Amino acid sequence: MTSMFEQLKTAARKRAAYHRTVYEIENMPLDVALDLGIYPGDAHQIARKAVYG
Fold first, then answer.
1. Model pLDDT for residues 11-45, shown as the tens digit of each residue
2. N-term to C-term CA, the chain
3. Could you state, in order of their start, the residue ranges of all structural domains in the chain?
4. Which pTM does this prediction carry?
5. Dihedral of alpha carbons 34, 36, 37, 43, sign
6. How far apart are CA 34 and CA 29, in angstroms?
7. How far, in Å, CA of 36 to CA of 49, rounded?
């Protein structure tokens, strides 16, 4: 059984990873993003799926 403290730590780590991923996608050079098949406008959706499943 996971303690509430551990759950909070996990949630904080995931939130940080989400924000970091959004930042990286939004600030990626457009030519690189398009080469990877990523539209920067979808950064939040991509990050949500990557971090939270």
1. 999 999 999 999 999 999 999 999 999 999 999 99
2. 22
3. 9-52
4. 0.86
5. negative
6. 9
7. 16
